[in-house]
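QUALITY CONTROL LOG
STEP: pairwise intake check
CHECKER ROLE: data steward
CRITERIA: each record must contain a sequence immediately followed by its C-alpha cells, with no blank fields

ENTRY 1 OF 2
RESULT FIELD BELOW
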Amino acid sequence: MAKIPQTVIDQVLERTDIVDIVSNYVSLKRRGQNFFGVCPFHKEKTGSFSVHPERQIFKCFGCGKGGTALTFIQSVENLSFFEALRFLADRAGVRLDFDEDERKANRERPDLDRTQVMETAANLFSKMLANSKPPQEYLTRRGLSQADIKRFRLGYAPDSWEALKNPLSRMGIPETVQQELGLIIPRQDGNGFYDRFRNRIMFPIANPLGKTVAFGGRILGDGEPKYLNSPESPLFNKSRTLYLLEKAREAIRRVGRTLVVEGYMDAIALHRFGFENSVASLGTALTESHARVLRRYGENIYLIYDGDEPGLMAARRGAEIFLNTGLPVRVVVLPTGEDPDSFLAKEGTDAMKTLLDTALDGFEYCFNRSVIQYGLEGVAAQRAVVRDLLPILKRIPEAVVQSEYVTFLAGKMGVSETAIRQDLSRMRETRPEREESGSIETKEEVKLDNLTPVEMDKLHLITLVLNGLGLVTVEDEDVVSPLNPLRAEEREQINRVVDLIPDREGLPLSAILKNLMPIKPRVYKNLATLLEGAFPEDKLAQAVLTAAPDLAPLCGERDQLLSQVVSDLEERKRKMDHKRLAQALREQLKPGQSGELDEKTREHLRQLDSLHGLGKDNSH
C-alpha cells in the first residue's frame, strides 16, 4: 500500500467526531464528561463501553477493546486500514491524494478498496437495468416507480456469462478480487471465470454506513434458486447483515421500534408506504447476531412474516431468537396467503398500522403456535405445550421478564406457577448423559461463531445429509448452498452418505451425527447442544433449518471432508455387515453339520470373504 503521511491521518482524525461515528452503532448515554453504552464487540448486559469526546478514543472495560475512530470503524465494519481511513476522510472532507502509479499498483494489492469495487458493480447493474426493458416491466408490475428504482438502487444482471466481469476487468479490477467478493465464479474446467448473477433483478446490500457489501438477486422468470445471495466475503457476513438497515436506522431511533421482514420486496414495500423503520433478513432465517445488531438502534421488534405456514413457523423461530437475546418482540399475523408487500398493495398503510397496534407479544405467539400443534385437551397435550415452551423461558436473560411469562403460562394452562418454576428448575439442573467418548459439557449459550471454518464446513455437510434423509426440507437451495455450486459427483457422494447410514429410521439426531463423521468432543458438544439441547426433539428439522443460513463453507476442504465422510461410513458399514453375516453363518453351521454347504451358506461365505478383500471361492 502507498505510504500515507501521518499528518494526513492526523488531519482525518482531527476532523472526525468519535461520538458521532460510534453513535451510528451504539446507543450512547452521557454520564459526566463521557458517553457509555453496550459494547458492539462482545455480548454484555451492562454498558461497559465508553467514549471519551475530549481524548477522541473509545474503551470497553469488558473485552478490553479500545482505540480511535479509525480503529473503531476498522473493527466494526471489518475494513482494512486504508478502507477505514478512506471512509473517515470522505466524511471529513479530507482528500487522500495518490499519484497514478500508486493507484495502478494499488489495484493489484490486497488493500484495494473492496467497498469501492462493490459500489462500481452496483452502478453497472443499475445501468444494465436502465438499458433492459423486461426487468423494468417486471418492477413496474410489482408497483415500483422509476423513483423507487433509483431510491433503492435496483439493478439487473443480464442473462450473460461475462456482463459484469468484463467491464470490471477493463477497469483494472483483478479477477481474484472479483471472485473474493463473490461477483464471479471459476469455471469447472479451470479456464477462467463467469458471472455469479445472471438474468436477475439485483438488490444491493449495504452495511450500516451505506456502502455496498453484497447483492441479492431474484431470477427473472423461471429458474432455481429463485433468490441468490452473495457468498460470505471480507465485507459480508450474512448472519449480521440486514437489508435496508442503512436507510432504516435513523427512523428506528426516532420511532423506537424496528419492523423485521424476510424478503427484499417486503422491506421495499414497507419503506414505500412510509414504514421507514423496516429491515429484512436477506430472505433467510434470523440469527442471534442479527438481534444483537438491531439492539444497537432500538429495543422494540415487530416481526411481519408471510401469512402461510412457513411464514408462521419462521415468525416463531424469530420470536424465540429475540426473546433469548432480551429484546421485546411482537408478532404481526397477516391474513392467510398474504405477505407484507401484497397486504400493503391491497389494504394500505392504515390497515398495516392496525395490525401493528394489535400485534401479539412474542411469547404469547409462541404459546399460541404450540397450542395449535399439541392442543390443550388432556394432561399429555398440556405437558407437551409446557415442554415446548420451557427452553424459551430458560434462555430469557432478564429474571423479571421470565417471571412474567411464567405467570402468563401458568394462567393459560390452569396450573400453579410453582409447578412451572419447578419444571424450569429441573431443566436447568439436567445435564446430558455421558456418551461413549466421554461426557459432553453444556454451555448457557452455543453460538455458531464459536466454530472454526472447517467445523462450520462439516456442519454444512451435515445439513445437506439431513436434507437427503428427509429431516430437513429446503425449498430455497441458497439456504444451504456451498460457496460454489455442488458438482454432480459431490451430490452423488452425499447420496452415498445417506445410503450408508444404517438403521437411520427413528434414530435420534445425536446418533445420526455420530454416524456422519468423527467429531471432536468440543465440536460435537456445540452441534448436539445447538441442534438438540436447545430445541424439543420433534423440532429438529426446524432447528437445522434455522441454523442453515449460517453454515456457508468458509474454506476449500469440501472434497476432502466428503471423502472422509464416505470412507468412515464405508468402514462402519463393512464392520456391521461382517457382524451380520458372521451371525447368519453361526445360525446355519450348526454343530455336527458336514458335507456340501447349501447355496445360501456359500453366498454368505462369499460375501464375508469379499469384506476382507480375499476374493476366494469358498464353495468347498
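ENTRY 2 OF 2
RESULT FIELD BELOW
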Amino acid sequence: MPRAFIHLMLLVAFTMAGCVPYPHTYQRIPNVTGSVVERGVPVVGAEVCLGEISEDGSFTPTSTPVMTSADGSFAAEGKRRMRLYVLAAPADSFEKWAVRIKAPGRDPVVYARRNLRAGPVSAPESVKVCCDLAEVDVCKVIEEKNGKW
C-alpha cells in the first residue's frame, strides 16, 4: 500500500473517532490592572506580581513584578500557553492564578482565584481589581473581560 494512503486512512480514522487534536493558545493567567490602596489612600511603590498557586498554597511568580504608581495603579501582563486539545474528550480543569502584593514595609499579601475550565475555555482575558490592604478579602474584582477561544 502506498504510504500516502496509509496516512490518509489514519487521518480519516482519527477524524471519525473525534480525536482530532489541534494546537491553540489560551489565556492561562489574565492581564490584571487595578489599584492598591489602604483605607482609601493609594499605596505608592507596592510590588505587584502575577503567579500560580499550587495545591499546597505556595505562590510561584509567572510575571515580572510591576510597581504601583503615585495613584496606586498598576498593570501586570498575564500569561498565554500553547496546548493541544482533543475534541473528543473535553475535560474540566481547575487552574489557580493569583496576585501577590508587597507593599513597602509590609509582608506580601496574596489574592488567589480559581478557574473552572470546561473544554477549550480560557481564563478571563483581563481582570480589573481594587485591592485594599486594610481589608480581610484584599482584592475585589470590579471588571472581568472574557476572551474568545
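INTAKE CHECK: passed for both entries
DESCRIPTIVE NOTE, ENTRY 2: The chain has one domain: 3-145.
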